[in-house]
């Protein structure tokens, strides 16, 4: 079976709709046909300041949401990054193969370091994409299902794999980003030209998987639209309405055109009310299941530990080949 690898940062109590649509819903479909590795990337999370207690909680909560949304720990290897030391070890090796200029061109670093200021932005934040390359390459992943914002990082991963292979001999599979057309970027409900993100200035446009129904309802009903009053998909002219239509379409599995038809001649309020229902239908069971999973920590930790064992085996094999190829004696 071909291999996929993907991950999310445990940097919030709850995943958001962008994570769910851009990544998680793809993962659950793909796990049937691939040898799938899904990681909670807590080493990535600490590239910006984290409260230790929150980080531990959020790591479990993220894993629980993967399972609640449909990742089956019996089919997929769902593990926590820090429980597999090879990630940090391979990242070091790849650091030595990455050009300073090359790393400097990563746009996500530029955005984030601007937010924190160059004195407080850590070196870890700078080398973040290199750790991500290590994640992917350790499992010899063929495909990396992610949202649009991760494309550049997967490109860097490909460059590093190719460079390593040509310098030290064939060692890594060169992975492809798998980015779903049309849903790879879900936009903020208050600012529908910016991507939905946990680091947005306000949470008013951020739909969280674990938020109570009334909170989500309020956010959707207040979503920014336009004053043209026709329900029609047009990304350039009608970004707000188009974003609502996209979300509606992905969560119901219906084409956008069928939703346009259903709401033809009706107001934005109706579309929003419809969407409130669709989102609630999708997230209510995920919330319930997440709570159940978090109520039995010991069991969740056991699941994660046993997945980490498998991950350690696969990753350890790749790391051995890397060390041998480079001449690092063990
Ligand atoms: P993270 O935690 O920021 O986001 C997790 C996943 O959600 C996707 N995503 C979105 N998709 C559509 N619309 C949005 N508004 C939106 N916001 C987020 C992201 O593209 C991502 O797929 N660097 C990664 C984590 C990572 C990783 C990896 C991913 C570390 N190692 C190896 C793949 C493979 C990140 O910060 O994702």
Word description of this protein:
A motif ('KMSKS' region) lies at residues 195-199. Its EC number is 6.1.1.2. ATP binds at residues 9-11, 18-19, 147-149, 186, 195-199. The chain is mainly α and 330 residues long. Helices cover 55% and strands 7% of the residues. It has 13 helices and 5 strands. It has helices at residues 17-30, 42-45, 52-68, 86-95, 100-104, 107-116, 123-138, 151-168, 213-221, 239-252, 256-262, 268-295, 297-326, and strands at 3-8, 35-40, 77-80, 143-145, 176-178. The strands form 2 sheets. It has a 3-stranded parallel beta sheet. Strand 1 (3-8), helix 1 and strand 2 form a beta-alpha-beta unit. The mean pLDDT is 96. The structure holds tryptophanyl-5'AMP.
Keywords:
330 residues; mainly alpha; 3-stranded parallel sheet; two-stranded parallel ribbon; 13 helices; 5 strands; 55% helix; binds tryptophanyl-5'AMP; ATP-binding
Brief overview, please?
The chain is mainly alpha-helical and 330 residues long. The protein has helices spanning 17-30, 42-45, 52-68, 86-95, 100-104, 107-116, 123-138, 151-168, 213-221, 239-252, 256-262, 268-295, 297-326, and strands at 3-8, 35-40, 77-80, 143-145, 176-178. The protein is built from 13 helices and five strands.
> Which outline best applies?
globular
**Ends distance:** 31 Å
Alpha-beta classification: mainly alpha
Q: What's the total count of β strands?
A: 5
Strand order of the largest sheet: 1-2-3
Measured on Cα atoms, how large is the radius of gyration? 21 Å
Which molecules are bound besides the chains?
tryptophanyl-5'AMP
Which percent band covers the strand fraction? Answer: 5-15%
The DSSP helix count reads 13
Mean pLDDT over the full residue set: 96
Helix/strand order: EHEHHEHHHHEHEHHHHH
Helix content: 55-70%
Largest sheet: 3 strands, parallel
Low-confidence segments: none
Enzyme class: ligase
Protein name: Tryptophan--tRNA ligase
Function: Catalyzes the attachment of tryptophan to tRNA(Trp).
Pfam family, one: tRNA-synt_1b
């Amino acid at each position: 079976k071909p291999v996929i690898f993907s991950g999310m940062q445990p940097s919030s109590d709850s995943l958001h709709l962008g994570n769910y649509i851009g990544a998680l819903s793809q993962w659950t479909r793909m796990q049937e046909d691939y040898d799938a590795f899904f990681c909670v990337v807590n080493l990535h999370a600490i590239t910006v300041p984290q409260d230790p207690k929150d980080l531990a909680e959020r790591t479990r909560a993220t894993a629980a949401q993967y399972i609640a949304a449909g990742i089956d720990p019996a089919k997929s290897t769902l593990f926590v990054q820090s429980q597999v030391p090879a990630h940090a070890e391979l990242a070091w090796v790849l650091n030595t193969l990455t050009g300073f200029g090359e790393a400097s061109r990563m746009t996500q670093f530029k955005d984030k370091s601007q937010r924190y200021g160059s004195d407080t932005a850590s070196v870890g934040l700078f080398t973040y994409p290199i750790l991500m390359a290590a994640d992917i390459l350790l499992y010899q992943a063929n495909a990396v299902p992610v949202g649009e914002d991760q494309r550049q990082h997967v490109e860097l991963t490909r460059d590093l794999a190719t460079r390593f292979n040509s310098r030290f001999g064939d060692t890594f599979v060169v992975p492809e980003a798998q980015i779903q057309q049309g849903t790879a970027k879900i936009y903020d409900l208050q600012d529908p030209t910016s991507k939905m993100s946990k680091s947005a200035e306000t949470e008013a446009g951020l739909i969280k998987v674990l938020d109570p129904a009334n909170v989500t309802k309020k956010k959707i009903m207040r979503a920014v639209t336009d004053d043209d009053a026709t329900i029609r998909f047009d990304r350039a002219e009608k970004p707000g309405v188009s974003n609502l239509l996209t979300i509606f379409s992905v969560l119901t599995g219906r084409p956008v055109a069928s939703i346009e038809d259903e709401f033809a001649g009706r107001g934005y309020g109706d579309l929003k009310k419809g969407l409130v229902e669709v989102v609630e239908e999708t997230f209510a069971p995920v919330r319930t299941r997440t709570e159940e999973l978090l109520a039995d920590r010991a069991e969740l930790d056991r699941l994660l530990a046993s997945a980490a064992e498998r991950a350690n085996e696969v990753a350890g094999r790749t790391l051995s080949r890397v060390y041998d190829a480079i001449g690092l004696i063990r």
